[in-house]
Amino acid sequence: MSTEEEPSATLPLPKGVRVALKEGRVVAEGPKGKVSRPFPENVLALTVEKETLRLTLRLPARKRTGALLGTWKSHLANLVTGAQQGFEARAKGVAAHFPMKLSARDGGVVIENFLGEKHPRRSSLVGGTVATVQGEEILLEGPDLEAVGQSAANLERATHIRNYDPRVFQDGIYITQKPRPKEAA
Predict the structure, then answer these.
(1) What is the pTM of this model?
(2) In the list 14, 18, 82, 123, which could disulfide-bond 143, CB 3.0-4.6 Å?
(3) How far apart are CA 144 and CA 87, in angstroms?
């Protein structure tokens, strides 16, 4: 009778970052903040050994279960990177017809005078993402990769134009840099 070893993966933990399982969620805390996401404890086991995270699969080793293990290793790497460094994305406002005014306030970005509209458009920021507006450039920063990406997508979606020829009316806010880890200053 042969005993198969459960498939596992390891991930190094940088100094200053703590990872724990709390009520079905994996939580990473570090200098840039606290990030969490749901964690399937019935399928995966997470153990912290000194400065290493060990992720063990509780299913038989197959192609799809191995893919699941790799996916969760990437999710945990993103949580650790977000807690340690944070993520940033950039967007740019393009206004060819009417001067657009951008401002960060009320937990979102307010877009005024877009295509000459009287009422301002608003874009919400998700999950602790912070926006900084510098002229026509918008910098989005936060510890959660998915929240920063969703906030950037919300910005782009807020200025979507319908019933106009997109070859002529290219006004809007466009993502110029997808979310990536912040550079160490």
Answers:
(1) 0.89
(2) 82
(3) 7
Contact yes or no for 111/100 (Cβ under 8 A): yes
What percent of the residues of the chain are helix, what percent strand, and what percent coil, each to the nearest 5?
20, 40, 35
Q: Tokens in use for 132?
A: 């900084």
- Matching CATH number, 8-84, of 3.40.109.10, 3.40.50.300, 3.90.930.12, 2.60.40.10: 3.90.930.12
CB atoms within 10 A of CB 38: 9
| Cβ-Cβ contacts under 8 Å for 15 (sequence gap 6 or more) | 51
Vertex 157, ends 183 and 109: CA angle to 5°? 60
Residue 93's SS3 state is: strand
Where along the chain do the CATH 3.90.930.12 domains lie? 8-84, 87-180
Identify the CA nearest to 108 among candidates 158, 67, 55, 43.
158
pLDDT at 3: 45
